[in-house]
Design goal:
Strand content: under 5%
Radius of gyration: 29 Å
Helix content: 55-70%
Distance between the termini: 88 Å
Keywords: Metal-binding, Zinc
Shape: globular
Number of strands: 8
Number of helices: 29
Strand order of the largest sheet: 4-3-5-6
Largest sheet: 4 strands, antiparallel
Mean pLDDT: 65
Low-confidence stretches: 1-29, 49-59, 108-345
GO molecular function, one term: oxidoreductase activity
Domain Phorbol-ester/DAG-type: 175-230
Length: 708
């Protein structure tokens, strides 16, 4: 077997990773020495498997390597970074660990069976050119080690000769190879010059967009990129809420596939061995109740020890000035693919909760598409039995301080066919001026809901909800009578319960998933509960059945459902950008509503949102000085200014004044938009018919009832 050519790509990644460790050891010797010792511990664990099937290949080398590890531990223990000859000592230790890593790398893949698996894992077709750091790309993922546990478990139960030691070796070898394969995923590409970038070198980072650049680009700042931690190591301090943590999250996503395996991994690492075994036993036993418990426990221990050494200990090597050590445990609060920065609110959900919400979400997206949007089972005339007046009124009080940034959700929902086509067929969103009237009317409707009693038949909220419910029913009946929506070969309804749930999400979902990024720094658990209850009531009044209501569960369930809806349903559709008309209409909405709020700009807003929404920021270029200024205003406003309740109150008051001025000058704004944008039109090219009915905007009702 030609090991030099076959395993060169493995060894070079392992050695380069050690380069990063030793490059930073002089200034950060405490944490990095500790992490290096832990790395050696993980190698020692890998070499300590008692399996007779490998005796022929490692009997002679294993004791020697274990002894070498022990000697390296002693050298690291006596290492003094501030001595004169520290660099020579470092170089010697570096060479020894590099040689050790290469030898271990070769031993663990010796043999025909392992060679075949190695070839399969690192075939050219499976190695992506770009990494997940380029937001638009979808790179093929390697097989997760935990994915293979069930397979090994089934082999254990079916074959009497298969022992726990056999499974131990297979799992540990698989985990080690998976660690090395992760390094292959970490290729990036400069978004400006489109040149490829290799990992683990000194690169340049764009000071404007936070993307890695090569030396041919401008706006550059020198930076060292650590591949295993997926984390830049600049000299200045960075807070936990910075983009660094967003990048750190990528490492976790690639080590384990997002979802229950990822959270189960953290549950395993944050509990003792016995609890970890119970967790993984329960997971493995779900598919086969007759599994061998001893093998399961052995697997779970190996998984915990190896993964801990691979991930958590590597993270702990990072400079304490970047991420203080007291915050290391906060990484366990990272959910499957997002960071919830309301730590006191959003604790990691249990695997059972995640699975239960996933089942409910799938039910909404299947059964909900065949249930009419205005349910006959809902009586909006009377409050539901679960109505909490105190929570509803508390949410209305919050409206005086916080004006939810609803426009981002209303823009993104247009990427969906079920959200876009109903707007096209009515003709009420055909031009920029009509978009102004429609979304000004929507703003008035929402304002009425927050300011009045929805169950008082004389209130503006009651009349507003009745009007919106009637419009939904008229459009739905007309569209479903003329033609149904064909989806995956099946006919589903227009404006169904599924659409009503996603309409709720467009109003409340973004503030739920990304509260601090949209300025809700001071929101408490009570505030979120009140806001969820408010939108549950509004959904009920609009005819949404409780089983399809976005906010019908407890607060934790609502958080998790919103998270899954965005990342599992919205984000893939938004990234695909299949609805070009929807994207153009979103731009038109921002143009129209800038006559209500002059600080609104589509490119600046989406550029600000793109990092945490996991969109490509280069899709939203800031071409004018005004756009660049507004982008910086958004950063300051949402990340700093909104931490003050007084600022939030002033902003809410200013929004109320602007709304009243826009209503008073409606005719002027309409004519101005018609003059400035005469050639922009959004035609109905999806349905063979239009839905025409007498559309009464909330603006007329506002003028008719402003004194009531």
């Amino acid at each position: 077997m030609n090991r030099d050519s076959k395993h060169h790509q493995y060894s070079i990644k392992l050695l380069d990773n050690m380069d990063i460790v030793f490059r930073q050891m002089v200034s950060n010797h405490k944490d990095l020495l500790s992490a290096t010792n832990m790395l050696l511990d993980s190698y020692e664990t890998l070499l300590s498997v008692d399996d007779h099937s490998l005796c022929n290949s490692i009997d002679d080398e294993q004791p020697f390597l274990l002894k070498l590890i022990d000697n390296l531990h002693k050298e690291l223990k006596t290492f003094q970074p501030k001595t004169i000859d520290n660099r020579d000592c470092l170089k010697t230790i570096h060479e020894k660990i590099s040689n050790l890593a290469s030898e271990i790398d070769i031993i663990l893949r010796d043999g025909d069976q392992i060679d075949n698996l190695c070839d399969e894992q690192l075939s050219p077709d499976t190695i992506p050119i770009e990494s997940n750091l380029v937001i638009n790309s979808v790179s093929p993922s390697p097989t997760s080690p935990l994915k293979t546990l069930d397979d090994y478990q089934q082999e254990s139960s079916s074959s009497s000769s298969s022992s726990a030691a056999d499974i131990n070796l297979n799992i540990m070898t698989k985990l080690h190879r998976f660690e090395l394969y992760q390094n292959r995923l970490q290729f990036s590409k400069c978004n400006l010059c489109n040149n490829g970038i290799l990992p683990l070198k000194t690169y340049y980072k764009c000071t404007e967009c936070d993307y890695i650049l090569d030396q041919n680009c401008y706006h550059k700042k020198r930076i060292i990129w650590s591949i295993l931690a997926c984390k830049p190591i600049p000299k200045q301090k960075l807070s936990l809420n910075s983009n660094v943590i967003v990048l750190m999250k990528k490492c976790f996503q690639q080590i384990e596939q997002r979802g229950k395996e990822h959270r189960r991994l953290y549950n395993t690492m944050n509990n003792n061995d016995q609890e970890a075994c119970k967790l993984l036993d329960k997971y493995l036993d779900s598919s086969n109740n007759n599994n061998n418990n001893n093998s399961t426990i052995a697997i779970s221990k190996l998984n915990m020890n190896t993964i801990c050494a691979m991930v958590i200990n590597i993270l702990k090597r990072l400079d304490d000035s970047i991420i203080p050590s007291q915050h290391w445990n906060d990484f366990a609060k990272l959910s499957g693919i997002i960071i919830m920065d309301c730590d006191y609110l959003y604790t990691p959900p249990s695997p059972e909760l995640i699975e239960r919400i996933a089942v409910r979400r799938r039910m909404i997206s299947t059964q909900g598409k065949n249930a009419r949007g205005v349910s006959p089972n809902v009586d909006p005339e009377l409050p539901p039995p679960w109505f909490e007046k105190s929570s509803f009124e508390h949410a209305q009080k919050l409206f005086k301080t916080y004006r939810v940034i609803q426009l981002i959700g209303l823009n993104l929902v247009l990427n969906f066919t079920h959200g876009l086509v109903p707007l096209l067929v009515t003709g009420n969103s055909k031009t920029i001026s009509k978009l102004f009237v429609r979304y000004l009317s929507t703003t008035i409707h929402v304002t009425n809901w927050f300011q009045h009693d929805p169950f008082d038949k004389k209130s503006k909220a009651y009349r507003s909800l009745r009007m919106v419910r009637g419009m939904h029913q008229n459009v739905s009946n007309k569209m479903n009578t003329e033609a149904g929506l064909i989806e995956d070969g099946q006919t589903v309804l227009w404006i169904p319960q599924y659409g009503m749930c996603h309409a709720q999400f467009s109003f409340v979902g973004m503030m739920t998933v990304f509260p601090k990024q949209f300025g809700f720094h001071n929101f408490t658990e009570k505030d979120f509960h009140a806001m969820f209850h408010f939108w549950r009531v509004i959904g009920y009044c609009l005819g949404t059945d409780d089983q399809y209501n976005l906010c019908s569960g407890n607060d934790q369930e609502t958080f998790e459902l919103c998270r899954q809806i965005y990342f599992d349903e919205w984000l893939p559709v938004i990234r695909s950008a299949s609805e070009k008309t929807g994207v153009e209409m979103s731009k038109g909405i921002c143009i129209a509503m800038s006559h209500v709020n002059p600080n609104l700009n589509y490119n600046a807003l989406m550029r600000y949102c793109s990092p945490f929404l996991e969109l490509n920021p280069f899709d939203y270029r800031l071409e004018t000085r005004r756009e660049r200024c507004l982008y910086r205003v958004y950063i300051f406003l949402f990340n700093r200014a909104c931490k003050s309740r007084m600022v939030n109150r002033l902003m809410a008051r200013a929004a109320d004044i602007r709304l009243k001025r826009a209503i008073a000058n409606r005719k002027f704004h309409e004519e101005n938009l018609k003059t400035c944008y005469p050639n922009i039109s959004y035609e109905n090219d999806r349905c063979p018919f239009d839905v025409n009915f007498n559309y009464t905007t909330a603006i007329e009702t506002y003028h008719g009832n402003k004194n009531k």
